[in-house]
What we know:
- By secondary structure, the protein is α/β, with parallel strands linked by helices.
- The protein has five helices and five strands.
- Helix content is 52%, strand content 17%.
- The protein has a five-stranded parallel beta sheet with strand order 2-1-3-4-5, sandwiched between helices.
Amino acid sequence: MTDREPSRILIVDDDEGVRKSLAAVLKDQGYTVDFAASGREAISKSKASFYNLALVDLRLPDMDGIRLLTEIRETVPKMVKIIITGYPSLENAIEAVNRAADGYMVKPYNIDDLLRKIRESLQKQRKERRYSEQKVKEYIERRGRELGRG
């Protein structure tokens, strides 16, 4: 994936209206969007396709979003995961962070705040990927020089 390709976002929410409205907004922003209505569907899709970011509802019909955080396939660069909930609590927020959530937003959320969080998260992800790629390149070049001398 290059920086010019649109970022891929997976929306995980059992509410079809939420999925459709959020997908429309994100597509208007230039993102490639897919969605899942359950945790199992999200796991299956994350194994079959690459996603830069997942927006995960806390309450799903087959599991809670926090459990899904630990079961969803990690990608390289690491998939960004943001929990979205209409049932906020300090306990949920702490558990989400402990399970590697990259963000926590409360419904009804301000769409501008959500888009800003998505942009910032994806920008950080791109920087981390470029850094990793640079380190691999440096290693390969160094090993090539070492082996060339030997």
